[in-house]
Write a structure and sequence with these properties.
This protein is α/β, with parallel strands linked by helices. It has a single domain, classed as Aldolase class I (TIM Barrel, Alpha-Beta Barrel). Helices cover 36% and strands 15% of the residues. The chain has helices at 3-22, 57-69, 88-97, 113-122, 144-157, 176-187, 209-221, 224-229, 231-237, 280-287, 300-307; strands at 29-32, 74-77, 101-106, 126-130, 161-169, 191-197, 252-255, 260-262, 271-274, 289-290, 316-317. Helix 3 packs parallel to helix 4 and helix 6 packs parallel to helix 7. It binds iron/sulfur cluster (2 copies). One iron/sulfur cluster binds at residues 38, 40-42, 45, 47-48, 79-81, 107, 331, 333.
């Protein structure tokens, strides 16, 4: 990333944080899904299919316009694999045209010098790639071995911020991988973050002593702001619930490929209102609703958005009307730090 772009990026970040602290009446971050389809099939993932078509560009623009009209600061494009969308560059251009920050979460497989150049031109601000292991295995092919050449291309050509996220916990076979991945990210000039995930049955279990040690080392290597914003991870690492106010449905929005608003990727179905019909009344109801899944939630980006309002406006419990239970184990590929 060029120094001039870096400084502009930092200024825009400072501006959206100040705005979010001064006013609580707009969404800070929205995840949008222009493409549910993915080229990979990670064993833990519940966020992809192999058949769906891209959301048409005009429809995506309408959704982005609505989010801009609600005052949204950051749009993160997620999936599936968003680089499979044939008009991804136009989607990014539209986000920037409407004055919002454009982020992207990708598995990294489609990057070429030409593709990176097009993303530079479209005005992409930030990219996150999650890498699950050093060597590919039967669960995940998002491995350092498969992606290292792509990372080198990004280091050479990208003019946007790049964060590499690794994961620890959840029964991941080689915890040392998280450290290897974070070291490589730093070596290439990227920022690095680490996500603590639940065990494969979705329960909160403390990390082992070895995992804790590696977790601390990876945190030290990574972005200091990010470490400061992720206190909740220390509780999760100890296997303890964390008390916070999740503002999903208000300050954080998840817009699925059908254009419906959901709390987040792991709580799809509620409120399930079409974005086109979403009003400030919906926003306020969700802002003040205590989420029953909050104490064990590990979604970094929603926690970080929550920090902006944790000090104000207590929430009330939402009556449980749904029969489904918390799906506590999130896909590791869909977290974007807002630091
Ligand atoms: S985690 Fe990401 S790369 Fe893997 S299947 Fe899910 S959407 Fe695709
Ligand atoms: S899973 Fe996390 S982000 Fe989603 S609604 Fe529950 S507490 Fe909020």
């Amino acid at each position: 990333m060029k120094r001039s772009t870096f400084l502009k990026w930092k200024l825009r970040q400072a501006s959206f944080i100040t705005r979010a602290l001064l006013s609580k009446n707009h969404p800070v971050l929205a995840h949008v899904i222009p493409m549910r389809r993915c080229n990979l099939a990670c064993g833990y993932c519940n966020e992809y299919d192999k058949v769906s078509q891209p959301v048409p560009l005009e429809e995506m623009k309408k959704r982005l316009d609505k989010l801009a009209d609600l005052g949204t600061s950051i749009i993160t494009i997620s999936g599936g694999e968003p680089l499979m969308h044939p008009q991804l560059d136009d989607i990014i251009r539209h986000i920037r045209k409407r004055g919002m920050i454009a982020g992207l979460i990708s598995n990294g497989y489609y990057f070429t010098p030409e593709r990176i150049r097009r993303l530079n031109e479209a005005g992409l601000d930030a990219l996150q790639i999650s890498i699950d292991n050093v060597e590919p295995d039967e669960v995940s092919k998002k491995s350092l071995k498969n992606l290292d050449k792509k990372l080198q291309l990004l280091a050479e050509h990208a003019n946007f911020h790049i964060n590499i996220n690794s994961v620890i916990g959840g029964g991941i076979k080689t915890p040392e991988d998280a450290l290897t991945i974070a070291k490589r990210a730093v070596e290439l000039g990227f920022s690095s973050t680490v996500g603590v995930i639940h065990d494969h049955d979705g329960t909160l279990k403390p990390l082992t002593e070895r995992e804790k040690e590696i977790f601390q080392q990876v945190k030290k290597l990574g972005n200091k702001d990010h470490a400061r914003l992720n206190w909740f991870q220390d509780s999760i690492a100890e296997g303890k619930p964390y008390e916070w106010r999740c503002r999903a449905g208000a300050r954080y929005l998840y817009i699925c490929e059908d254009g419906l608003v959901h709390w987040c990727s792991q709580q799809r179905g509620y409120p399930g209102t079409p974005l086109a019909d979403y009003t400030m009344e919906d926003f306020r109801r969700e802002y003040y609703s205590e989420k029953w899944c909050a104490p064990t939630c590990t979604l970094q980006c929603v926690h970080q958005v929550g920090i902006l309002d944790n000090w104000r406006d207590p929430q009330k419990p939402v009556p449980l009307t749904r029969s489904d239970k918390p799906k506590a184990k999130e896909p590791v590929g869909e977290m974007l730090s807002v630091e």
